[in-house]
């Protein structure tokens, strides 16, 4: 009971933080996609997950870990009118509910509502997109919207693997969309994953060079589980 009370207090704190911040979106393709009846899914970095809660459409589905940390995020998502779907990637050979959650996200997108994935989560490597985002796009018949979020003032958890960012109160959050990425007929999932990853990392290097890693993953690097 106490844990749930604390989770809702955290949700209220983030709601107040959101109310204090100004959000400005750049190169936003969503109005045109909506007019065309085109489905879309958000692709974001794990470091930006809290800011992304502020910027998504109501009704967006979001995968949330089945851990206690994930449980604490559920009230925050609900208060921001998002749809939590529980599960996370396979770890140490054990399925943590990720396959089932990804299937639920695909079904969510097929109803015409967006979904969002932290593509390098839940354990990294940082900025290394997992193949789940490509599968979500292909099977949900949706374009991928890579989104980089840059607050004017922020706290950065420098010891966390993802360098998690939290915008400071009364800051401005700039959201930068890449060009929508379409799945191509017959394209292997790994090739599609690489295109998504390259676009996302290039946008971060352009918009937030201080936080963008200096490295790039080789094309032949080991595929990560969804």
List the helices and strands and how they pair.
Layout: H1 2-20, E1 22-26, H2 30-35, E2 39-44, H3 49-55, E3 61-64, H4 68-79, E4 83-86, E5 88-91, E6 94-96, H5 98-110, E7 115-118, H6 132-140, E8 142-151, E9 154-156, E10 165-167, E11 172-177, H7 189-207
Parallel strand pairs: 1-11, 2-7, 2-8, 3-4, 3-7
Antiparallel strand pairs: 5-6, 8-11, 9-10
Query: What percentage of the residues does DSSP assign to strands (E)?
Result: 15-25%
User: Runs with pLDDT <50, length 5+?
Assistant: 220-226
* Rounded radius of gyration (Å): 17 Å
Q: Tally of extended strands?
A: 11
- Report the principal-axis shape: globular
Q: Roughly what percent helix? A: 25-40%
Number of helices: 7
Q: What strand order characterises the main sheet?
A: 1-11-8-2-7-3-4
Order of helices and strands: HEHEHEHEEEHEHEEEEH
Integer count of domains = 1
Could you tell me the mean pLDDT?
90
Distance between the termini: 32 Å
Instruction: Quickly give the structural class.
Output: alpha/beta
Largest sheet: 7 strands, mixed
């Amino acid at each position: 009971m106490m844990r749930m009370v604390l989770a809702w207090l955290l949700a209220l704190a983030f709601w107040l933080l959101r109310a204090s911040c100004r959000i400005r979106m750049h190169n936003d393709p969503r109005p045109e996609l909506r007019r065309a009846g085109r489905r879309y899914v958000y692709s974001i970095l794990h470091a930006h997950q809290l800011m992304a809660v502020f910027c998504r459409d109501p009704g967006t589905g979001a995968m949330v870990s089945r851990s206690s940390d994930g449980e604490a995020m559920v009230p925050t998502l609900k208060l921001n009118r998002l749809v939590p779907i529980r599960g996370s990637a396979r770890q140490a050979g054990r399925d943590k509910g990720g396959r089932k959650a990804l299937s639920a996200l695909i079904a969510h997108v097929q109803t015409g509502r967006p979904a969002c994935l932290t593509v390098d989560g839940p354990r990294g490597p940082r900025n290394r997109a997992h193949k789940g985002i490509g599968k979500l796009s292909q099977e949900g018949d949706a374009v991928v919207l890579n989104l980089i979020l840059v607050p004017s003032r922020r706290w950065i958890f420098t010891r966390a693997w993802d360098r998690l960012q939290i915008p400071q109160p009364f800051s401005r959050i700039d959201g930068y969309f890449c060009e929508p990425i379409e799945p191509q007929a017959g394209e292997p999932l790994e090739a599609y994953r690489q295109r998504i990853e390259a676009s996302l990392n290039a946008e971060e290097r352009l918009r937030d060079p201080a936080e963008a890693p200096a490295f790039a993953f080789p094309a032949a690097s080991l595929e990560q589980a969804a």
